[in-house]
Each structure stands twice: as structure tokens, then as C-alpha cells.
Sequence to fold (473 residues):
Amino acid sequence: MGRHGWNSGAWRWRIAALLGVGAAALALVLTVLSPLPDSKGSTAGTTPDGDKVHGTPAEPPVRPGPEVGWGFTHTEHSADEGADAAVARARSMLGEQPMPQDQAIMGWGADNPEPDKGLYQFGDLDRRIDFVRKSGGTPVVTLCCAPDWMKGGEPGPDRTDWSQSNLEKAPDPEHFQDFANLAATVAKRYPDVRHFLVWNEFKGFWNESQARWDYEGYTKLYNLVYKALKKVDEDIMVGGPYLVMDSLSPQQTEGTSDTFKGAWGRMDQRIVDAFDYWNEHKAGADFVAVDGSSYTNDDEMLPDEFKATDKFTAVGSWVRQRTGNLPLWWAEYYVEPADGNDERKGWSEPHRVAVHAAALMAMAKGGATSGFYWSPETQKGSSCAGCLWRPTDRASGGGALPLLGLLSRFDDEFGPGTKYRSVTVAEDDVPHVRVLADDKAVLVVNTLNRAISAKVDGKRFQMQGYEVKWLRR
Fold:
């Protein structure tokens, strides 16, 4: 999908994912059919006391650390809604091995949080935060996107424009402080949310005339949000810049970095410039967050889908060197290119799980301590390629799928504070086996689509094609 006048292989800005809720879409349709007079419209469903503490917050750590572990991001459809039995099943399942769970403040299942200045509607965000609390997860909030009135649109809860082009807009500079104030309101409403990501993928911060990112504008917004959150509570953890670490073909030299490269490709120099500016001019950061895919902007997986994940290690090492070893988060990560409908259904589930395991290993080897899997559920159906659980639209839904088993086990074994250890691999297994180990566990991935006999950590065992195996030490 083209973005900002240049080709991006990220393919993450799905129209369906951006529609906050069905009710919001219906309101848009009604607005088109029956234009409203030139007024701010109804204020029904809003409240002026948005910073009032919601529900029963979980007890947060006295001094939270910047590392939260490995989890997932809620998108438009998630386990907080659906058939009661399915929702309960998913909530209980996630509670067995609680993980960090991220939610945006607008879009991806959340309605416009401040449709008019000083008037709030947090119903959807309340429900998502309640789900995280009840399932025992660590709540994380992404501060994106911005209410319409902050970017030249109409105020009012019945006037939100849910189109892709509108949601991609950043706040106008004169409303940067208003957005920072909204961030502070969110922090006060959910005092158990101690980790905040500022914005998402530089959306709306593309400088068309100069064909580069408006990193000055993003950094100005980031700094205002950072200061507003720290004013609420100095112990709140804040991070950015949530840049998409785009790479291009190794043969492309124009517009690419001469030094930041590998067999997986060359880093887009505009990304390097944007990151360096934010890093030099940021007001502060408790962690650094990036986003990206193992494949290039042309969907090339180089040299293959497993070795392409080495990009995550290279990016992590580069970022940590640049930031003085700030804790590193992967806010999103992708290993399977999408088709023309932005769907990823081409691989078998064992293949998909194996490549994702290799990606998690690569991120950890690059110094990452936290990562978030994107889009854990589709709207309906009995099958769901790449999902974490079965859709909750029916009573039989909500059950775990293979990727959830991998992610939850990885978080359990290799959570924050893990000290990784070396592990021996037989010489003839090195080309097609990937491993990661600490003092207690070894994760082994067979990158071949055939059975092998592997010897790892002094143990010989059989592995099926694309098998992911855990060993105890």
C-alpha cells in the first residue's frame, strides 16, 4: 500500500482496524444521510469529568519498571466483546499466563475519547481496560489517535470522521498541548496504566514537500505529552518514537543507509534521520519503541523468511547503541507479507509459528525486552489465520490458537530480567536450527519443512518440519 507518496511495505493501516466501533460507523452513515446544522451537535453520552478514576484499578507496582515483557495489542475486534461464554473463556485463558496488553485511545476498538473539548466518552476504552484488569494483564496505552477537533474537523460525538485519511491525521500544531492534556486525562482515569506509547508510526507526520518525515513536529508533540504525563506521576513510563523501521532491497543505494544494512536489506535513510532527531531532542524517555517487518518494502524476505528476522537483531542493536541502551520495545512486528487484501493466509500454521518464534528470538538477541503481537482476533468465523484465539462471536469461540501458546510461553520463560546463556548446537544443525536459552529453558526452531534429528545443548531429539520445541536445562 502506498503511503505518503512513497512505497511502504508495512501494510498496517487497515480501514477495518481503524473503525472504532460499529456504532461510530453507523453515526457516520447517518450524518451523511442527514446533514446536521452548523452546531456542535449533541453532547449525549459525554461527560466533563474524564479524569475521574474508572472502576477498580489493579494495584500497580510502587515503582514500575520500563520493561513489561511480551504480549499483544487489541485491535478492532477483540475478546472483550462477543458471546458471554467465549469472552469468559478467553479472559480465563489469558489469566493463566498474564501478559502485557496494549490498547489505543481512539480507533482499533475505541471510540473518540474527547469528541468536543472538555467533553469525554471513554466507554469503549473503559471496557478494554476492564478486560485487561480482569484477565490479569499489564495494561499499556498507545496515545493515538487524535479527536477530530484537534485536526480541523467538526466537534461533537456524532460527527467523528472514521475514514482512513482522517484518522491518519496528526493533531494540528496549535492543538499539540490539547492532545497532551488528553493524555494526562487518560493517565488520571486509569492510574494502574503505568506505560504509555506516544503516537503510532508517525502517522500524519509526513512532510510531502520535502519527502521526509516531519520529525520536528512529532518530537514537539512527544515532548509535550512526556511532560504532561510526568506531571501526573513522575513514575509513569513513557516511550517513543514508534517509527516503522523500513528497509529496502540490498541493491538499492539511493536513499538508503551506507552502514545500516545486512543480507535482509538496507535501512531507509529517512528513518535513520527521523530517529536520530527524536533521540537528540527528546525531553526524556523511559524506553524506546520501534515497529517493523522482517521483509523489505517490496515484500522481499532475504535471504529467506527465517534469516530475514536477523533484521530485528540488527535494528535492536543499532537502536540501543544510539540511545545508551534504553530498554527496547517492539510495538509491532511482522514476518509474513500480506496479500492484496492485507491478509496473511499463505502459510500453514506450523510455518507461521516457527517464523514468529525465530522473530521473537531475533528481537531478544537484539536487546528487546518487550514486544507486542498485532491483531489477535478477526470478527467472526471458526478459523483465524495468525490469530491468538478463536473469534468470540459464538459461544464455542475464545479458545487458544498455536500462536498464543508460543507467545505466552515466551513471555513466561524469557520475561524482563532474563539473562540469556549460550547453548551448543551440532555443527550440521547450525544452518537450519535456531535457538535461544537462559538458565532454565531452551527454545529450538526447525527452519526446514521436513523432519530432522537435531542435537542441541547436548541432547539429541527428533523434530518435525517447522517444529518449535522447548527443552528444560
Summary: Confidence is low (pLDDT under 50) at residues 1-39. DSSP finds eleven helices and 20 strands in the chain.
